[in-house]
Amino acid sequence: MTYARFGTLRAQPGQGDRIVDILIRPNSETQPVGCLMYEVGRDSEDPDLVHVVELWESSDAHRASLQLESVRSAIAEAMPLLTPDLRGTGFEIDGSPLRSV
Description:
4 helices
């Protein structure tokens, strides 16, 4: 079943650009494990508040991506630039009027 995640990351003051650069770095390993979409953006009034929206083939695919060295490396690089104010949630997709699930 298709799995979605969305969350917010708060960068240390002035580090929003660096967080976005890390998150949008091309990664050819995530699509083969089941990443369907990975979008990153920022709050227009708060450039250190980063939003991430992900769509995966399944929750197992998302978990598998967290074992990829490229993903683990990006997480390790980003963590020192973030505050503890990380929020996110994941859920199984029931359906969509735009596509079949």
